[in-house]
Design a protein that fits this description.
20 helices, membrane, Tripartite tricarboxylate transporter permease, DUF112_TM, transmembrane, mainly alpha, transmembrane helix
């Protein structure tokens, strides 16, 4: 079957009434979460993992993807009106967007962000649909050596792509490895690191760790920060609609942002943050009036927002085809797949085509829903910014606890939830990223299994791990993944910091 036929079948799955409802719930929750400062889509998906444990797999995954896309949309509202990026990918939007809001042009800033997100999401989702089958064909020839090299690439990716330090990323990753070793050995049947506790024989639940580190840890961290900083929400003045000049200055930026964001998001060492920095720098170089940058240039909102949403679709390429998460939300979505006994990768397309193509097609529908939700309901989203933080995070804490109890009613599980929550707080306090620990717990057992299979086939000869051209190539890419994000991040941040310094002058 061709890609068009698969996509058409996926649209039929996504158009089912229940799946449409899941998509609507996902994009609404995602937008609300993106608007609220300090709460990202990863935290929301983590909270919903235990709640959706017994729901339909296709509907739940569609809802998770809707949350991901909606969070990218909603983050622009916070950046523009509050000058508080909800996550690192929205930093660049705040530079020009908040300046436009202060000048009474918050409406056009929000409009170009919403329409640019729609355009980028639409093009990037189609790119995902047509590129994924080719990557799957390549991955179907993988053996144990290639899969182990792929896991090494995943580990290097999450260590270098999350946080500011690769060393801290590796430390977080090895915490996940240690937790992954708890329980029964898959090949020998022996208990490992269970310390005689029967509850540990089944290992550490991914959902418990994800909810604890993302939700409980974030709540404790915010509570420790206090509420001493006054946040001023800029009112949306004038019309929400863009003028003809705004359209003329935005549409090229939307396309350029899409072309920059999608391939960077699809790279194993990509992510939305790098694409937004490069898009902003590109728009500034190509602008007819570069002196407007720093004072509210609409291109500085249109380009990075398009790159942001194109990157979101791009990150689903390595996640669905190879099982590689390159963002925190993708890591939690990986846990969501495993929750239903599904392993993202080439076999997912062969064994569960309805689920994966329904998920891809639902992204097209989610984009249309988000465009309808964002512009007419901007007043509602702005009101969410007035929710007091104590109420907000108390609700998150309650929801996380009740979700864990519902999925696994055990006192020991609640104790682990609290312990991992404290660990997540400590890691945030000292600047250690959370996502690598979750990825280590998810992919650690798979990497161990493939390594042991490869060594059994080669009778213990370690050198055979690099004899395969594909395995050797993946290991070379893994080595490069340490260097490329560092160079791109330093280059992009240097340009943004110089822009911030110029703004202060």
């Amino acid at each position: 079957m061709s890609t068009f036929e698969f996509l058409f079948q996926g649209i039929l799955v996504a158009m089912q009434p229940m799946n449409l409802m899941y998509a609507l719930v996902g994009v609404t929750l995602g937008t609300a979460v993106g608007v609220l400062p300090g709460i990202g889509p990863a935290l929301t998906v983590a909270l919903l993992l235990p709640v959706t444990y017994k729901l339909d797999p296709a509907g739940s995954l569609i809802m998770f993807a809707g949350i991901y896309y909606g969070g990218m949309y909603g983050g622009s509202t916070t950046s523009i009106l509050l000058n508080t990026p909800g996550e690192s990918a929205s930093i660049v939007t705040a530079l020009e967007g908040n300046k436009m809001a202060r000048a009474g042009r918050g409406g056009p800033a929000l409009a170009t962000a919403a329409i640019g997100s729609f355009v980028a999401g639409l093009i990037a989702t189609l790119g995902l649909a047509f590129i994924a089958p080719y990557i799957v064909k390549l991955a179907l020839v993988f053996g144990p050596r290639e899969y182990f090299a792929l896991m090494v690439l995943a580990f290097v990716t999450v260590s270098s792509a999350f946080g500011d330090s690769a060393l801290r990323g590796l430390t977080s990753l090895f915490i996940g490895f240690a937790l992954a070793m708890v329980g029964i050995d898959q090949q020998t049947g022996q208990a490992r690191l269970s310390f005689g506790v029967p509850d540990l024989l089944d290992g550490v639940e991914v959902t418990t760790l994800a909810v604890a580190m993302f939700a409980i840890g974030e709540t404790l961290y915010i509570a420790a920060q206090g509420n001493n900083i006054a946040e001023k929400v800029e009112a949306v003045k004038g019309s929400l609609w863009m003028t003809a000049e705004d359209w003329g200055r935005s549409w090229k930026a939307w396309l350029r942002g899409t072309l920059i964001g999608f391939p960077i998001g699809a790279m194993p060492a990509g992510g939305a943050e790098i694409g937004t920095f490069l898009s902003y720098a590109t728009e500034k170089r190509l602008a007819k009036n570069p002196e407007e940058f720093g004072h509210g240039a609409i291109e500085g909102v249109a380009g990075p927002e398009a790159a942001n949403n194109a990157s979101a679709a791009g990150t689903l390429v390595p996640l669905l085809t190879l099982g590689l998460p390159t963002t925190a939300t993708a890591a939690i979505m990986l846990a969501g797949f495993q929750q239903y006994g599904l392993q993202p990768g080439p076999l997912l397309f062969a064994n569960n085509p309805q689920i994966v193509w329904g998920l891809i097609a639902s992204l097209l529908i989610a984009n249309a829903m988000l465009l309808v939700l964002n512009l007419p309901l901007i007043g509602l989203w702005v009101r969410l910014l007035t929710i007091p933080k104590p109420w907000l995070y108390a609700g998150i804490l309650l929801f996380a606890t009740l979700g864990t109890i519902g999925a696994n009613p055990s006192v020991f599980e609640l104790g682990m939830l609290l312990a991992f929550g404290v660990l997540g707080y400590i890691m945030r306090l000292f600047g250690y990223p959370i996502a690598p620990a979750v990825v280590g717990l998810i992919l650690g057992p798979l990497a161990e299994q493939q390594l042991r299979r490869a060594l059994a086939i080669s009778q213990g000869d370690v050198s055979t791990l690099v004899m395969s051209p594909i395995a050797a190539g993946l290991l070379i890419v893994a080595a490069a993944a340490f260097i490329i994000p560092l160079i791109l991040r330093l280059r992009g941040r240097g340009q943004v910091l110089s822009q911030l310094a110029a703004n202060e002058d």
